[in-house]
Amino acid sequence: MSVESEIKETLKNRKMHLTLIDPDEQTPEEALKIAEAAIRGGTDIILVGGSTVSQNQVDFTCKILKENIQKPIIIFPGNTSSVSKYADAMLYMSFINSTNPYWLVGAQALAAPAVKASGIETLPMAYMVCEPGGTVGFVGQAQLVPRNKPKLPAVYAMSSEFMGMRFFYLEAGSGAEKPIPPKMVAYTKKATTDMVIIVGGGIRDGETAYKAAKAGADLIVTGTIVEETEDVESKINEITTAINKASKN
Ligand SMILES: CC(C)=CCC/C(C)=C/CC/C(C)=C/CC/C(C)=C/COP(=O)(O)OP(=O)(O)O
Ligand SMILES: O=P(O)(O)OC[C@@H](O)CO
Ligand SMILES: [Mg+2]
């Protein structure tokens, strides 16, 4: 089954949690330990990516994960070099509020031959970055969505869906002080018909993850907490338990 079908099947019953591992932050062996603990804590998918990673870092991290874990591995690309045949899929993303055509369509074209050769599945995604935006907002030269304009991303999600994107990622920036406002998630979800809504950036506890899921997020991403927490399994369990609770009532 494709990764997309697996996600769609699971979403019929509950929302999902994704753990982002930035290959910049640790060795591949340490990344494996983190991924294993996150999986014991209930995470569904491992995302691999960062704004400033090299091809080797991505490739070595995907390889060790692929050889040792059963959960899907999805690349969250920071640039054209974020390609690895060891991943199961890639978020094939256009940074829709970047002011630079390179991040809108250029990087995607330049990466296409390597992605095709790698044989990995591509998940067509619109990526929208909101305040504060973090490293990715800076690197991607974004016109950040103001936090107090929760209706704004909804029309972008709507148009992305009309253009054929099947995933929409609302990003506050890795390590953001505040997450995407739940109202913004709600307007975005309601504006789309069959899009998978991904929310990430600044989610550090069960309560925040619960609010994002309750507001309409289908996939909830956390990254920084696995870099900062000693007990990765318990922390991820707190978050996945909250997401499961939000899926039920
Ligand atoms: C589709 C292909 C192959 C390429 C397109 C690539 C695009 C459009 C990238 C958008 C810009 C970008 C730099 C995205 C990176 C997103 C990401 C994985 C962020 C993770 O967080 P970090 O930005 O590494 O944060 P830290 O500074 O906290 O490490
Ligand atoms: O590191 P955090 O703040 O959890 O953010 C995760 C992800 O949305 C970053 O792209
Ligand atoms: Mg990072």
Question: What's the short story on this structure?
Answer:
The chain has 249 residues and is α/β, with parallel strands linked by helices.
Topology, pairings included?
Elements: H1 3-11, E1 16-21, H2 28-40, E2 45-48, H3 55-68, E3 73-75, E4 89-95, H4 101-118, E5 121-129, H5 134-139, H6 152-162, E6 167-171, H7 182-191, E7 196-200, H8 206-215, E8 219-222, H9 224-228, H10 232-248
Parallel strand pairs: 1-2, 1-8, 2-3, 3-4, 4-5, 5-6, 6-7, 7-8
Question: What features would you describe in this structure?
Answer:
There is one protein chain. This protein has 249 residues and is an alpha/beta fold. The chain contains ten helices and eight strands. The chain has helices at 3-11, 28-40, 55-68, 101-118, 134-139, 152-162, 182-191, 206-215, 224-228, 232-248, and strands spanning 16-21, 45-48, 73-75, 89-95, 121-129, 167-171, 196-200, 219-222. Strands 1-2-3-4-5-6-7-8 form an eight-stranded parallel β-barrel, surrounded by eight helices. β2 (45-48), α3 and β3 (73-75) form a beta-alpha-beta unit. α6 packs parallel to α7 and α7 packs parallel to α8 (206-215). The chain is globular and about 40 Å long. The two termini are 29 Å apart. The model has no long low-confidence stretch (mean pLDDT 97). The structure holds geranylgeranyl diphosphate, SN-glycerol-1-phosphate and magnesium ion. The site of geranylgeranyl diphosphate (GRG) has 23 residues, from β4, α4 and α5.
